[in-house]
Structure formats: structure tokens, C-alpha cells
Amino acid sequence: MPIIGNHVAVNSGRWRLAVVAFAVSVIGVLTWLATSEDALDVGDKLASVTGAVLALAGLVVGLLTLRAGAAADTSGDPAQALEDLAGLVLRQWEREAGARGLTRQDPLDVRWASTRRPVAPSAKDVIGPGVVAGEPLRLKLHGGVGRLADALFELPGHQLVLLGEPGSGKTSAAMLLVLHLLARREPGDLVPVLLPLASWDPAEQDLDAWMAQRISADHPDFRARGVHGPGLARALVEKRLVLPVLDALDEVGSKVDAVRGIARVVGRNSPFVLTCRADDYEEIIRETGVPVGRAAVVELTPVGAREAARYLEAGVLEGDRRWRPVTEALLREPDGVLARALSTPLAVYLARTAFTPLTSDPADLLELPTSSAVEKHLLEAYLPALYPCPENPRRWLAFLARRLAARPQARNLGWWRLFLMLPGPRTVVGASRGLLTGAVFATTILLHGRLSDQPVFAVWWLVVLAVGAVAGAVAGALAGTVVGAVRSPDAARLPSYLVASWGRAAGGLLAGGLAGIGASALADQLASARTPLGVVVTTGSIIGIGWSSQALAKPISVNAPVDPRGGLAGDRKATIFVTALATTTITVGLSMWTWVEGGLDVPALVAMAGLGLTVSCVWPLSGAWVDFTIARTWFALCGRLPWRLLGFLEEAHERGVLRQVGAAYEFRHQRLQQHFSR
């Protein structure tokens, strides 16, 4: 199966704009020099700067042109995009299935059968006319999870609804279904994509738009600067080249609207799979009065006592007989308290994990009087079995679970949304940013004074720093409060995956800067003004920032699905890159102004650099990484979360407490989240 490579999409329109920008800059500067009273003096200074700039511009443009010409352009190839998506989805869910233990040699045999609930279309609608003789009364589909893919393909409409009780393994079954479908897929076939429905608001987005957005969010190749872009993600969805596996309908806020939205999109012929809690789905269909398309509806059956006993004894050390009393009780009383408590994959997983330590005794379960008592015991023993010292992990997980419960619309632990868990999040973040900005500005003033041989006393340093930091914090808090009042309380800055290419940034900066210089010079002449050269150069340089960081940014191409650490690293790289670029540009522009108008010395250069960094801190260039760093610092100082937060979340994922969805984490099951939030 083809996997994407490092493609670079060439946008010839941007290079045409660069040529136009250069022409405008030349005309503007020449016009400005021709009408300037001191044209010779200023022209000599400008020529010495421009000569080096243009030489570097020629080198950069030449190198980039050669590189772009040798690169392959796949941004408009739907067939390649489809194969790339298949490879990314396969990698994403192979890794997650391995983390959940679904690919082990002794998996739990989870069964399913046609539901008896009044929620399915008639057997004739599902099978279609003329397929079988007579009038079928009821479908009798059944099998193990490994046969779900076969059942889906055997259905004429390729539509399936999978129901189950809480903890019955619906998400795991959907994940394995996607992997089985990909294993039998041929080039050009539909690509199954597992999409958790929790983030969908059917009142705000139709299903197609949301699915395309989720594909772009999980796979950067389908983002705005990716090699395929969001347009191809939408095209693949609208052309029905994606087989949506829609997981957890019960987690959508407006379930009835969601079912109606799904029915409008899939109709009777578009393949899809939908999972939902059985009771919730029955209530939804009772309210709508119509089934979803022509989908067959099957339901996961409880784990039998014999299968639970087999699974619990599998994979233990030779001679380990600790499970023997439990398995004998299960086989002796298949409808007893213990068998009922261990009738879901979640409960069996908790039991096997909680009693992994050789010092534990599973026979303790036999002394518990009710199924609820068994579940409570397993939940309490779960974390100590995973962590040698569970006190800190328990406290950190409890904090995250409570904050998620308080903000149910957040639903998952996306690192870029961590700051939303702060009290007054935008005010705190704004104050923190303002404090940093004020400290940078105060430090600039103090360094300038020091280098200018002005007496600067230690007390004066402290006073200026304190005043700058406090003033910045107050201004930032006010700004954050205003932003919080006008923005959605759950809106968060999405991570950026800009690839920092200094060569492309230099080319963009030159093109944008020259365009800005020319435009500023022309505007100056049209207004019959006499603006100093420094103002013209500075204005043009600042315009170049946006050009260099956006128009000529290198497209994204990754060979693996997005993971939280990779997403954070990408956003951090983009933030530092753009901030450094902005600081350098503003510093150079201000320094040129100072040099042309009256000379430049070391103190002035330091002052210009400080001002450039200050403006960069104020300017909203920094990404989600800054918000995350602020929130992580606050929570770590308060003892709520560890300093190495991502490391802790990764470890919790590896140990099975969390599951990964795209670049975010979730608790493995809502029951675990409810337990930790107590």
C-alpha cells in the first residue's frame, strides 16, 4: 500500500506575485529616490543594503526553484490521496489496537447477533427484493468480532449498526473492524475511517463537513498546508470513497438530530457503520420512528462464564494457580454474582489487570456479595496494579477526570485545550503573556541604560522589572477577559504544523519586504509626504513577516498519524520559528531606520532587538504551545499535574488507562473516568 512521501506542492501563482512585488518595489523606490532632496546620500546607503539583499534573493529563489521543480506534485491527485489516507488510518489503529492488547494471541472472544430490539428495518429492506425467495421474517446474523467485516460485505447495502451495553467492547470491535477491512482492501476501494462522534454537533455541521474536518485534524497531510489539503479530504468524503465507521452515537449531545443527519447523508446505498449503546439507540429510534437507512442492527452479547474463565487463565505464568478458584466458581455458577459482574469485556480486562501482581489473590472476588461490589473492588485495585506508587497518578488522573466532567463539551485531553481547565482561562493566559511581555520590555530598558554607561542600581532593576511585569500582567489580563467575553468558552487555538524552512522564510521575507518597501514608497509620493527611509524600510519589512510565514511556507508531509507529542513539537517549532522571524525582521527594520536617520551603536541595537522581541510577544503569532506551557506551569506549581505532563499521559496510555484519538487522549472508558472523578 503506497505511503506518502515528502512532496512539495508548487504554487506558481505565489511566484508570479513575488515577481510583481519585486517590480512594484523597484518602481516605488526609484520614484521615491527621484523626488528626494538628498537622493544621492540616501541612495548610496540604500544601494549598499539593497545590493546584498538582491544577491541573496537571487540565490534563494534559484535554489527554491530547483528544489520545487524536482519535487512531485500530488496535491490534486484523489487516487494518491485515497491510498495515503488508507496507509495513515492503518498505522493509526494498528498502534492503538496494540496498546489496548487487541492483537494479543489470546484475545477475548466477543460475540454478536442480530438484535431483538424493535430498532431495525425489515429483513426485506436490509436484504433487498429478489435476493431470497419468500418473505424473510427476521435476520439471524451472528458471529465473532472477527466476522463483522464479512457480515458487512455480505449485506447488499453494506450498512451496519452495532449496539452494546456500557463496557461491552463497541469501540474495540469498531477498531478491529477497520483493521480487518483494511487488510482485505484493494487499491481504489473505499477507505474505512473510524470517527468518534463525541465532537460532532449536528446543529452546527452536516456529517460530510464534520467527517472531512476530522480527517484533516487527525492527518496533517489533509490540512491547509498539507500535500493534499482539506479540499481533497472533503472530495473523498463527498464522492463516497470513505467508509465512515461512526463510533459512540450515545456521546453526541443531540442524538436524534445526529441520527437524522446520518440518515440524510448515507441514504439507503452509502456504506457506513454506526455504534451506540443499546438502550440509547432504542430510545432514539422510538422517537424518530424510522430506522437508519437499510442497516442491519446487531448487538454484542454478554461474555459467557466459560469464555471469561478461559481468558482469565490464559497468559499466566506456568504453575500460577491463583485464578483456579475463580474459574471453578464461574463454571459452577454461570449465572451467579461473579459471572454477572464479569459479563463485559471491560470487567474482564479490569479483573485480569487488577490481579496481575503475584502478591494479589483473585479469590478475594468470591467473598463479595453483589456484582456492584465486584466492580467497585476491581476499579479500586486497578491503578495500584499498574503503578508501583499509585498516589500521584491517582491524584493527577482524578484532577483530569473532574475537570473533564465539569466541561463535558471538552470530552478529551487535547494538550492544546489544557488551558481551558484553568479558572478564568483566557484571563490567566492573557495575564501570563502580558507578564512576560512587560518583563521583556523592562529588561530592554535596563540593558539599554547599562550599555549607555548610565548608572543603573540593583534596586532600580527590581523596580523597573516589577513595574513592567505588573503592568504587562494587568494589560494582558484585561485583554484576555475581553477576548473571553466575545469568544466561545470552549474555543482553543488549534495546533500548527508549519514546517520551519529558513530558506523559504528568507525568500518570502525578501519578496514581502521588497513589496512593502515599494508600496510604502509609492504611497509616500502619492500623499506628497517626505517619510524617512527607515519608516519605509520598517513598514516593508513588517509586511514581509506575513508573506514569509504564510505564502511561502513549506507544505506539510508526514508518514504517520498525528500523535500528541509530535503535534506539540510541531506547534512549538512553528511558534519559535515565526516569533524569531518576526523579532529579527522588526529588529532589522528599526535598526535600519536608526542607522539611516542618525547612526547605530550597540545600545541602540540592543534596544531595537528588545523592541522587536516585545512586539513579537504582543503580536498574536505564538501558537497553542504557549497556552499549553502556561497551563502546565500553573498546574504543576499548584501540584495538580506533573511537570512532564505529556510523558505521564503517554505512560497512562501505554498502561491502558487512556486511549488515543488523533492527537488527544481519552479515558479508556467512561466508567473509569467516573471512578476517578469521585
TrEMBL record:
Matches recorded under InterPro entries: P-loop_NTPase (IPR027417)
Protein species of origin: Lentzea albida
UniProt protein name: NACHT domain-containing protein
Residue ranges of the TM segments: 15-34, 46-66, 427-447, 459-486, 498-521, 574-596, 602-622
Keyword terms: Membrane, Transmembrane, Transmembrane helix
